[in-house]
Amino acid sequence: MAGATADRVSGYLPGLATLRRYQRGWLRPDIVAGIVLAAILVPQGMAYAELAGLPPVTGLYTTIACLVGYAIVGPSKVLVLGPDSSVSPLILATITPLLVPADPARAIALAAMLAVMVGLIEIGLGVAKLGFVADLLSSEIRVGYLNGLAVTIIVGQLPKLFGFSTDADGFVDEIRQFLTHLDETSMVTLVTGLAVLAVLLVLPMLTRKVPAILVAVIGVTVVSAIVGLVDHGVKTVGELPQGVPTPEMPFTQWSDVIPLLAGAIGITMVSLTDTIATASAFATRRGEEVDADKEIIGIGASNVAAGVFQGFAVSVSSSRTAVADQAGARSQMAGLVGAGLVAVLLLFLNGLLADMPQTALAAVVITAAISLLDLDALARYARIRPSALAISLVAAAGVIFVGVLQGIIIALVLAVLLFFRRNWWPHGAVLGEVADVGGWHSIVKYPDARLIPGIVVYRWEAPLFFANAGQFRAQIRHLMLEYQPRWIILQCEAITDIDVTASEILRDLDEECNAAGTHIAFVELRDRLHDLVARYGLHSTLDSEHFYPGLEQALADIGGEPDRDATNRGPNPDGRGPDSA
Fold it and tell me: What angle do CA 270, 276, 277 make, to 5 degrees?
């Protein structure tokens, strides 16, 4: 009985199950990895909290809560969660419209409430086994979103790097304000920030053994304390509030729920995409399997924990996960060690980072933003699929000029429209036999392909449904006029569905073809669709004897043999570009 109960607990709390089976030999590498993680998590947590428009200390509250939450519920032994550069701007974009006038306490409450909503959505998706929703944010949209985000983050952090502040509304206004206030630059602040930025960018090129952020932050904090940079006009972080917050369920007012829900959905889409991609990559390296639904539940629990402890929404960090993996982490204990050290900092050493310059946090954020840029992906899209490049650029432009949330929505709408456009007017190809290559291929790509007199082999490359059934009918009519065949053989391998509207058009089209002396045969139609055709009653017009498992069987039955002297006559009916089988 006790064993069965333990198994059920392990199923619901895989992280806790791992800790129950903890091996003594894991302890030392987990402690080392936890210490390394803590050194990175503290400055990044503080920097990303400011990026979200929140006090730096909330980043530390978030770090502690989400690491503990994932250690209990999360299935992966090595994933590291925390404040993230791709999520923090979404938090800022979501809560800012609700802060009139600006109120730090209300901002914390809204961000915490948003984190709980994100967590509940993710837990719901995981429990319902709907982890596949992460796939809705396609690669090109994600690249565009991150590229646009990188640009906006960098521009937004420039005033802090230069030692002044602006009150801008939007990307263009941010640039204008920055240029207008350049005469207010604090040279000491700028030099300090650039020095930190140089260490963060150059040191990783020289060695990966020593975390650049650790060297940069400790170095600049020590220099600031010794030299007294604050006396030279350099703003510092100051002493952090002592202690950790008590848990409480955050709530502001009901009118905030709907605006926060929109942001929560956007954050969920972004964070889940990162989570599944990172989890899969590291699981493969460690010879483990990924349960996407359990991962989603784990990150959802972490977000709820962060919100309950006055934190904000989090995501998986591939860079921090890589650090933990390289440091030798064996289990979620590494995250618990890191969380414990951050808690010790807040409880007993809250003045340790008081001399850290604010410009150093700006440099940390700018470095993170640079890592988000993926210009190589844009070049690849330009080579392989211009429409993917267009979607990515629109996503980036939407994030930059319209807003973070709006940019994602614009890109998603465009992607859906292009998807329907491709299925509304899909590719079709007349096929001919290609002796040199073997098999039947598009006559556009192989102009010397052999055709059979009186027979046209035509491939339709999409489901047949109400939106494209008219296009299908038009192309079959075009084939009849162009080739005047006795038979049109439809190669159906790419047809995955036939809806009611398409079935009616098929029936009418077959009667029209028969009246003109042309017959239609079907090749490689899926068994499921064959049954569907029967249920639609199409066998009253479509001869059930003319459905064939393969092209050769159809040609043998119809009596057609390839004419070795016949060459390609005419283009594909849709006039599209190269295509192959």
Answer: 90
